[in-house]
Amino acid sequence: MRDRLGQSAGRKRGPLTGPNPTDRGKLGSKIHLICDRNGLPLSLGISGANMHDSLGLEPLVRGIPLIRSRRGPRRRKPAKLHADKGYDYDHLRRWLRRRGIRPRIARKGIESPQRLGRHRWVVERTVSWLAGCRRLHRRYELKAEHFLAFVAIAAALIGCRRLTQHRTSLAPDQLTCPSDTWA
Fold first, then answer.
1. In this structure, are residues 32 and 47 in contact, taking their beta carbons and an 8 Å threshold?
2. Four-way CATH pick for 18-176: 3.30.420, 3.40.50, 1.10.10, 2.60.120
3. Which end of the chain has fewer CB atoms surrounding its CB within 10 Å, N or C?
4. Residue 114 CB partners (closer than 8 Å, separation 6+)
5. Does the pLDDT at position 14 exceed 70?
6. If you ran DSSP here, which 8-state letter would residue 41 be given?
7. Facing residues of 162 across strands?
8. Which of 135, 143, 154, 144 is nearest to 33 (CA)?
9. Which residues are paired to 2 by β-bridges?
10. What share of the chain is helix, strand, coil (3-state, %, to 5)?
């Protein structure tokens, strides 16, 4: 039996796929993202479903673009970075501090998840916005670059929607860029 792309059912789907530990070992991809405190995606990445989250942090932080602010020079890095317990490694904390970013990472076995949850829900909401794009539910693309492009298009649509909502809720003299703040 062949699907719409002319491939037989059950074939592997290109690079950056791996056995999903929560779905009976089926191949899949994982979307990684960093967003600001308003939920706008700043940096995106994909990996195999079996890759640990901590391995994707450094490329994501390096991929954060410069942000134009109203006063002073452009910001090159966030002041602090909130993350869950999957990123609780000393080498990641040291790497963030060397870059001048204060890590706010929950410690395994010490801190309760509710304390960090005050900030973490913003990322979870952004992930749910991405999940609202039907194309991202199942990876049809053989090339990882094509799947990443669809993720980037979805992130651009999220940014566009947030910007238009933000502009309509403010008076014309109060317009600001919602990405001036960092999480």
1. yes
2. 3.30.420
3. N
4. none
5. no
6. E
7. none
8. 154
9. 8
10. 40, 15, 40
Tokens of 45: 């990445």
Q: Looking at the chain, how many residues does it have? A: 183
pLDDT tens digits, residue range 118-173?
777 888 888 888 888 877 877 778 888 888 899 999 999 988 888 887 666 554 44
| CA distances, 90 to each of 96, 97, 140 (Å) | 10, 11, 37
Q: Is the pTM of this model over 0.85?
A: no
Residues 6+ away with beta carbon under 8 Å from 16? 29, 46, 47, 48, 144, 147
Alpha-carbon torsion (6, 12, 14, 19), positive or negative? positive
Angle at 159 between CA 156 and CA 163, to 5 degrees: 140
d(CA 41, CA 23): 26
Q: How far apart are the first and last CA of the chain?
A: 47
